[in-house]
């Protein structure tokens, strides 16, 4: 139906940085339990940096390690909660390599519900107030980034942010139009789009005037991820849309001790670094 209505698909990696040009803040969401939903964010950091974005605000970083993290250039187990997952760590590491200042914006632990949303927004607004040259990329979960409508019976972080700062962010939805291992969990529009377009990389839809399509109100653009393909039991999106290639190793490393976890690390990082990839082998 999208193609019939005059929409056409574009690679999200090329399109979103162009869309972000006039904005001072870009909000990208993810599903915390599905690493796929942060793979595009890793790749968007470079073109967004080229558009002048220079501060990367990440959910659930521990304030105690912020100075150490920015100095070291890579996350450790002490850096945060979600950062322990390798793709999330890759996102933070990539930002640091590109020269972003990485900041925490999580609310205090005693703030929940609307108070948490409000304090998260306050923390982000303070970054922009303190530095007139700051251009912000924000990684957040799910509907924290929706700009209209109810959120948990009150307002989302993005709504508080707009009210407090007078700045409208670009809001990029990445959690809904994704493949699930159980096909029954796919959004009905996902299967229709995937079967019609067969994307090989994350896409967005635009009309003839370049206006983006969003599945739901409150977001500026929806990202549609390709169907999942596995090789040797690993999903193709671990390649981060062309940034990495698979490397085959021997299971003999495990010396017949199972289960066995194999980690891939960057040679120039300490043993405390969160690995770039890891896999548990248990025949």
Characterize the structure shown.
The chain contains 7 helices and 12 strands. The longest helix has 18 residues, at 113-130. The relative contact order is 0.18. It is globular, with a radius of gyration of 19 Å. It has helices at 12-20, 39-50, 66-72, 86-97, 113-130, 157-165, 188-197; strands at 8-11, 25-30, 55-58, 101-104, 136-141, 170-173, 203-206, 221-222, 230-231, 234-235, 260-264, 277-281. Helices cover 27% and strands 17% of the residues.
Structural class: alpha/beta
Rg result = 19 Å
Q: How many helices does DSSP assign?
A: 7
Largest sheet: 6 strands, parallel
Main sheet strand line-up: 4-3-5-2-6-8
Task: Write a concise keyword list for the protein shown above.
two-stranded antiparallel sheet; 6-stranded parallel beta sheet; globular; alpha/beta; 283 residues
Topology of this protein?
Elements: E1 8-11, H1 12-20, E2 25-30, H2 39-50, E3 55-58, H3 66-72, H4 86-97, E4 101-104, H5 113-130, E5 136-141, H6 157-165, E6 170-173, H7 188-197, E7 203-206, E8 221-222, E9 230-231, E10 234-235, E11 260-264, E12 277-281
Parallel strand pairs: 2-5, 2-6, 3-4, 3-5, 6-8
Antiparallel strand pairs: 1-7, 9-10, 11-12
In short:
By secondary structure, the chain is of the alpha/beta class. The chain has 7 helices and 12 strands.
